[in-house]
Amino acid sequence: MTAQSSNFGSTVWQMTLMGLRYLNGRRLRTALTTVAIVFGVAMIFAINLALPSMQEAFQQTITSFTGADLSVTSVSGESFPPAAVLEQISSVDQVKAVTGILHRQFSLPTLGESSLGDTTQIDLVGVDPASMENVHQFVISDGRFLEPGDSGKAVLPAGIAELAPQLGVGTTFPLITAGGLKFYTVVGLLAEQGDLAAPEIYVSLADAQAAFNQPGLINTVEVLLEPGANREAAAADIQQAVGAGFTLDQGSNDSNTLAAMQVGFAMFDVLGMLALFLGAFLIFNTFRTVVVERRHDLGMLRAVGATRRQITLLIVIESLIQGLIGTAIGLLIGYLMAQGMISVINVYATDFFHRGSLSLQFSLSGLLGAAAIGLATALIAGYWPARAAGKTAPLEALRPATPANIQRAARWSLIVGIGIMLLAVLLLLTGNQGAAGGAVLFLMGMVVTAPALVIPVARLISPLLSFGFAREGDIARSNLVRQPGRAAITASTLMIGLATLVMIAAMVLSFASLINSLADVNFSSDLILLPQSIAVYDNVIGADENLANRVRALPEVQDVGTMRYASAATADGQALQVMGIDPNEYSKVASFTVNEGSPDAAFAALGSGRNALFTAIALSTVGLKVGDDFMLQTAEGPQTYHVAGIANDLFTFKIAAIFISQTNLAADFHKTEDIMLMINLAPDADKQAALVDIQTILTDYPQFTAHLTGEYRDELANVTSGALILMYGLAFLILIPAALGLLNTLTINVLERTREIGVVRAVGGSRTQVRRVVTAEALLLGIFGAAMGVLAGVAMSYGFIAAFGTVGWEMPYFFPVAGIIAAVIVGVLLALFAAVLPARNAARLDIIRALQYE
Amino acid sequence: MSVKHALLALLYHHPQHGYELGRQINAVVNTEWDVKLGQVASTLARLKDANLVDYEVEPTDDAPDRKVYFITDEGRRELESWYLTPEVREYRLGDAFYIKLVLSLLGGPVSPEQVLITQRRELFQQLHEVTELLRQADARTQLPWVLLLESATMHLDADLRWIEMCEARLNDLKHYDPPQPTPKPRGRPRRKLAQPSES
Amino acid sequence: MSIVHTESLTKVYGDVSQPIPAVRDVNLTVEEGEFLAIMGPSGSGKSTLLYMLGGLDKPTSGKVWLRDSELSALNDDALSRMRRTEFGFVFQFFNLIPVLTAQENVAIPLILDGVPRARALKQADDALARVGLADRTMHRPTELSGGQQQRVALARALVTTPAVILADEPTGNLDSRSSDDVVQMLRRAVDEWKQTLVLVTHDSRVAAFADRIIFLKDGKIVDDNRLKGRGNADQIREQLSKMVLS
Which ipTM was obtained for this model? Predict the structure, then answer.
């Protein structure tokens, strides 16, 4: 048994060596074939690395920091009154001491001089010094820890010296709070270094409650157990005592934000998969050629006794080697890409997410997953040619080269392909979630049909060529239809690339239109005051009513509408972002897009009872429909809300969010901070003067920036179009493997016809004519691929936009005329570009050597 | 083959007497080629008459005096012009087998195919044997012999190829109408190709 | 003792409506240790016959036995095993794998048979030494002359000590001198290494090395000619002398 396996190993090892050398002998082709795998694996790996890293980083901020044994938070992540909870936990056996704290991590405004030096975000921790002492003893290196009755005093970790060296015991620094800027005096420095990304600043509980405008509330209970206590048992008892509204050692995991990111990243994943699809095509195409090219060697191996299986194994090993190389390089590039993404995000992190610096977390499962996908692609793509190779007759080794047989496209491919496409069209027309599947199915149908289309399409297109290639067009056409399979695969690779381009063009149009219509509802006011971040509200310090009141008091101001925020969860733990508005005020300065009825009716619904408006995404995530009642985990325990309707705006359309009235938000979530203010001015007011007045008020609230709504909207539009241009960039990236596919096929065609080209040259064909034949062939392929790509692209864009509609992003569908024109032009240009090298090689062939070529 | 030129070629290098020449001619040209001493002596005499060689008498004690031959200037010129004259092979057309084959085409107890096969067997037998000798020969020490054997294989090969050609032509030959001697009113009969129309 | 024999071996190409017979009803017995040459004009079916003897081509009818095994009764795997253990092939166009060294090319049948690589390579070295290429083991085919390549191919055929070596025009692509080297080597394989050899050639001088020549015409054996050593070397010598002296 062991002998058998070692023998098998010997054969496999030899085949691996052979495969490596064959590949080495055709380095260019190997490189070209591998590129698509590299590309796909890199994309998928990068996404799978970057995303969990961000997730990790987001979750990191939640975990306990005081070194207590356990910490308890509310399921929603929101604050709660301490008395009952502290009492419940204290009564649990094995609990030695408890203390309630209120902390929030938030970023400091980047405008103006920073009071904390280089610190970009902090974790403001409000503690009750008396009970804290029982739970955790802080080691002080200078000064003292907080004492009961302290107000306006702060204790900093030692690491702050690196960020703000001027701070020492006795110095003061300002900090943004919901009530405006407030000054704190440093009374002590801790011995521990602290988290430099977000240093913990300890203040009294009362100060923190004031800073967050949450008087009397805490959001975390830290628990110290008896020495030698059974941690698991104690945790279970505590959980039992506090009930389902609370959770131990974990808070909300920012799944809202991540969900928003995941939607964006899913696009990368799709592109990665498309690239691998292309890679599979390339490998398949290449190995089909390899098998033809190497029939002598394969036949010889058969003649000296290789079995069919061994030959199949040989080719499979070779394609696996390519897969391995491509995957390895892809993983490397993917890792670098992930690094790049993280560092790009880090650049924006301070401006946009306010989360401090993320670091790349290496994920073995991400690596293995991406590697497995890459290898599987190579394996599957290589298997069919390998099987064909296994069928090589030993006599092949002895026959002189015969011109490649003209393949006949199987009729079944036409029938099956058209069948698949019809099914796809049906799916597309249903217009629901199946539409995306229909789009993919359509693509597959095109691929299946392609071989049968080569001959008629070539006949159809070649008259077009007769303008520029009067004499060569026919030869090119007959060359092409000799290997319809190869032509079809090449055109299919091009099709996938161009279809992506068309699809992205269509989606960009639709997205732009969607965002535009959403922006209309958000940016109808004259001025807007925005917090540090408009994507993640957890770590935003808003303002108490004073700000809104001061603004309202300005003579130019007519209406002020505010937005408030809380986090919540459904009964089954699905996180929701809760936006609080005052329906009367808010309707004057902004609006929603509603799927049914009018915005007015929606506002009216919020005016009474526990009614909620859902974003379409939220509704589909939690699986409810309009009119349902549902349970929401609030800071006040579970509350029953009613789904009053669907409403979207620009800030929430990508996330699972609900709108409720500010009255309910205050009652159920204890949140009264305004995180966004929209202002309408009196009809004759001077906008610039009003802006200056408001900016004066904002010196007390540096966490806000004031914008003229119109300007901000333009700015946002620029950012958006920048992101959309990035999408075009991706579409072009995916065209690279498609171009390589073309190049590959043309090169192979030229190689295969070396002798024919020699004959043509010998009987008087000029170099130019030879070159033009190859170019004409490339053009035929390019036009064929472009035609298929346009069809598939239209189907795909329609399908995906329909699918997006069902998850809540109802977008108008725009026929991507510009995208189609671009795709055709790009297809033709790619073909011409890909033809340059093979055409030159063909033209430069030495006649004598070409004639002797076997 | 010219023994005369062989002797001139050997004397070209240095003077020798007749007996040495007789032994050397066998050694140099071909170990198997047994040239008789008498033939050497008579050829030397003829060369002397033609003034192509000359000799000096070398006295010896216990034997008759020996003649030591050397080449004359005229002899050198003769040798040179011999080297520079290409040898024209005589075509062995119409040898015995040719006659046999052609006659067998007329019909008879044995078919032309069989005649060809029989001849081919013999030629292959000979080729086999020559090849065997060639395998045993050492080109480094027996180069002239190897060259000779290779010449023989080539000739046998040529004969075999001709037989192959004949076999391939057998169909044509079967339709071949042998020429009939046509009676002529006057003069001697002359060979003439038969006209198909006359048959 | 016979090692290969055929019974009414027939191969017909083309379809039923237009059959093109390549080998017709051939009954042939190859003796162990014999050097058999198959000759015939092109299209006489000599290569087809050779391929059928080696299990490379399937007969339309009739049978081929290698010792007790009837080849057409074997499935593809068994036939493949037979090819790598019982037959050694030498072809006109050398047919070496270009990406492998001489040594690896020779070792291929062993490796395919599951012999551990190190041992296979060692045996390959021995076989290469036998054909006089001990100093060329690490060369790629392209770095070798035609004659050397063919000797590598011969070593590949020898390395498994097959029951029969089948050579198809092994000198067809070589100049006279290299051709001579290769045939000498084939002859030695029979004489010294006790191999059985069947060779297809159209070159009389190559066939003359054989012990037996069969002639094929239109797919049929038209002559079976055993060349006997008549021991008349002296007679040849004399004739050759005459040739020179004539």
Answer: 0.84
